[in-house]
Amino acid sequence: MAQKSSIKKRLTSDELEQLHAWLNDPKLTQLETTEKINELIEDRGGDPVTKSAVNRYKLNIDQVGKAIRESREMAEIWIGKLGAAPQSKVANMTSEIIRNSMIDVSLALQKITMGADDPEIIAGAIKMLKDLAYSHEKLEKAVSETTDRDVKIKEIARKEALAEAASNAETAARAQGMDEDQVAFWRNKVLGI
Q1: Tens-place pLDDT, residues 38-47
Q2: Is residue 177 part of a domain?
Q3: Residue 85 has pLDDT above 60, yes or no
Q4: 175 inside domain
Q5: Burial, 57: exposed, middle or buried (Cβ in 10 Å; 0-12, 13-18, 19+)?
Q6: Is residue 47 domain-resident?
């Protein structure tokens, strides 16, 4: 079971922020970055970190960064494909993606928490699942509301179109010299009455 990173254990939030800046500076090697961060830690009397800990931390943040970039790229692709699609289709697709993600996260969390003795890890996994479930519930509600709104809009548009067609039929029937019974007959025929 993976333990909390020694980087996160030993560095203050300000030191962690500085470490990120140094790790993203192409002019600095990881060895130089490790030396610089250890100088900061030493100044406050803390325990130094190893180069391998800095390397593992860098690999981890690179991996997270890569996942975020890939996620953004996929979102841009889907937005490009669905840009003109009705909102309900986009919402349904997004809901399906979240459902699949919840399954993936759930499986990953099972692996992480298996045999974990650290209550923080287990509590974090439970909170993550709870947050995902809450987000999914909100999305499902939004999809339902969007679908209902689309149905209502289509029904209003259908009624307006029928009313306009009935009015046009009335006008045309009167223009043809039909009596009021015939005008009413054609109006009702258009309305489906």
Answers
A1: 999 999 888 8
A2: no
A3: no
A4: no
A5: buried
A6: yes
